[in-house]
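Anyone up for a design puzzle?
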């Protein structure tokens, strides 16, 4: 079932990249936007396919990954609602260097390269927001490299489990999280083997720092977990 043009514009306007774009420009972008309903497990694009725009996630989650020469899979990023992917390659006029697969049923919007380039030429504010988005992505990738190089596996897992500062009530001691993806996928994202990831969760549980029930993880004391050195 289609969301229709009006709803596409509404979705676009709620995303950080488009929330200051004026009505007429949003009409133009919406007219060049394709709505994609993607079932869990479906491949959105393969590595090596041409990049003719970028995707926005309305709901669901998308895995960006590549397959190593040995046949193993490395998850590069997990994209959730309100986030986009594919912008950098669109500007570079390069094919995709990863494949994208839906981790759950998804609604995506694909914004065409031509529409984006027309708006970049017309609106300096849009250009700045696009640059800011690409800069945030680059910063995130640099942080990933730093984490993989300088932090232990246990520190990486703890960093993932801990809530961000803006999510913490000053009076909150306990925190609960539901892993949004499988443990195997999350292990790959953290540059760990599934076995190592499971051992780390077991070790943290043995120390009373977390309790695990399937995908649900409870942190009894946020500060104790934050201060654990492993």
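Challenge accepted. My sequence:
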């Amino acid at each position: 079932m289609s969301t229709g043009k009006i709803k596409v514009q509404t979705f676009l306007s709620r995303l950080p990249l488009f929330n200051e774009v004026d009505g007429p420009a949003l009409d133009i972008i919406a007219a060049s936007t394709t709505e994609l309903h993607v079932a869990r497990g479906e491949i959105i694009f393969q590595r090596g396919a041409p990049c003719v725009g970028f995707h926005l996630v309305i709901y669901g989650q998308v895995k960006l990954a590549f397959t190593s020469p040995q046949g193993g899979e490395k998850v590069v990023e997990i994209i959730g609602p309100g986030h986009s992917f594919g912008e950098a390659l669109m500007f570079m006029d390069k094919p995709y260097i990863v494949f994208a697969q839906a981790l759950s049923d998804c609604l995506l919007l694909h914004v065409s390269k031509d529409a984006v380039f027309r708006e970049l030429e017309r609106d300096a504010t849009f250009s700045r927001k696009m640059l800011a988005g690409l800069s945030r992505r680059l910063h995130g990738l640099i942080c990933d490299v730093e984490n993989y190089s300088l932090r232990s596996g246990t520190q990486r897992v703890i960093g993932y489990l801990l809530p961000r500062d803006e999510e913490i009530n000053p009076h909150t001691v306990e925190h609960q999280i539901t892993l949004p993806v499988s443990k195997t996928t999350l292990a790959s994202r953290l540059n760990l083997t599934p076995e190592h990831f499971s051992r780390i969760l077991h070790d943290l549980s043995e120390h009373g720092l977390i309790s695990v029930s399937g995908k649900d993880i409870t942190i009894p004391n946020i500060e104790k977990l934050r201060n654990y050195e492993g």
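A detail worth pointing out: Residues 1-6 have pLDDT under 50 and may be disordered.
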